[in-house]
Amino acid sequence: MARAAVLGRLTWRVATVAAIRDETATARTLVLDVPGWPGHLAGQHVDVRLTAADGYTAVRSYSIASDAAGDRIEITVEQVRDGEVSPYLAQVAAVGIPLEVRGPVGGWFTWQPDQREPVQLVAGGSGVVPLMAMVRAHAAAGSATPIRLLYSTRRPDTVIYRDELARRAGAGRPVDFAYTRVTPPGWPRPPGRVDAALLAAATFAPDVAPTCYVCGPTPFVEAVADLLLATGHDAARVRTERFGGP
Amino acid sequence: MAIVTPGFTGRRRDSSTDLPPGQYLTRDFPVLSAGPTPKVRLDSWEFTITTDPGAVHRWDWAGLHALPARTFTVDLHCVTRWSKLGTTWQGVSLDDLLENVETAAEYALVHSYGGYTTNLPLADLLDGQAWIAHTYDGADLTPEHGGPARLLVPHLYLWKSAKWVRGITLAPQDEPGFWERLGYHNYGDPWREQRYWGD
Amino acid sequence: MTHLDGNAAGGDLGEIFAVDMTAATGQCVGCGRVAPVATALAYGPAPGLVLRCPGCDEVLIRVVTAPGRTWLDVRGLAYLQLLE
Q1: Looking at the domain that runs over A12-105, which CATH code has it been given?
Q2: If you measure CA to CA, which chain A residue comes closest to B10?
């Protein structure tokens, strides 16, 4: 396995929102300017801290979506119903506002181009964000390592990074989708959750010995991780990151 | 030094002079926990009071409900700063549970299903200050809020109101519980803002 | 309310330890399981951060943060192996 991520001293820094890109009706990407950003690995996240005028603070973690690029990082925020931080980031935050960030955080749920074994990514909803960072890092490095993504989401219109995923899906980097509520017209499978049959059809088999990265809400991650182990993947090669609440 | 985030307000919060210092009013009922929600079956549920000489007084679910059920409305103050006023509960008063318990002990250590503990003086459980509560807002207390039954001691910060309560041990010496061992104030009076050690 | 995992505690632990803690491996005093901190089940961070062994639920690490003070309890770990 690659050497561990090296971090600078973790401390809060002030970033500025440099640009905003809508991804879906409920998700958008914030491009942040972070002076002195030390760089990051695919899979790492930042903690974002918001402070109200009366001093009330709220902190949430957001995966970095972008490949390392100087002082710029991107986070993609999905609006969570009854959320406290995501409604602000997904709707209110505007270009020019300051955001406190702490990071990069994480040295285990990461992928680096010097990893040679095949990569199996399994995303649930906004869990696709850190996995997209891995897809982007893989492409930027010109890596020949086999990589696949299985992306479970509610409906066709909730797919984040749709166009980019379609572009990258050629040349041996398959992207498969699972729709849990509504499928596109003519879709071969009815709506439903990821199950053993879908894993068998759309992911690397255990004998390929991929490193698997599973990210999404806690119930999704635990169900998929259990399925991967049940089909024979080595527990040491299944990496998980649970996403949380509002 | 934190900067203010323009346009961020967070969940609705009201401050008022009727609240303990540093608290804000919430309409929600936040759920905070130190571990997984225990699954407790009513047919094996029990509550025990263990005295200093080692006598064990035991109530099963039916036994708890055989005691007088009190309805009471109290304010809740969480050390994480939210307060929820006027919450209505039903439960059994600790005065009734302790009525036939003989002890010279001064301290109580409360134990919960799942392993959580908290400590307080025995005197703070008496005189109408504490209940084993099983009904909240007219319905069975849900597991996420401590059901089947939790301790309620509303004059102290809410971490003392142990969810999933299973027993109380009375002892001559004070023994700090789960949070009291790691920075949270040993007594926890919200009106004197006793949140952490030394407050 | 559900749990997260040790990845989510990486920021708070990183500030305390000044190195990444999520890839550090530790041994549970309860069941002996050795695993990365990232795989621990995380509760909190309010009123405190609690990391539990996914095998036996033993409390591995606890962190309480107050203005100007932080308390750390690692009695649930027999050891922590930090990577360079």
Answers
A1: 2.40.30.10
A2: A84
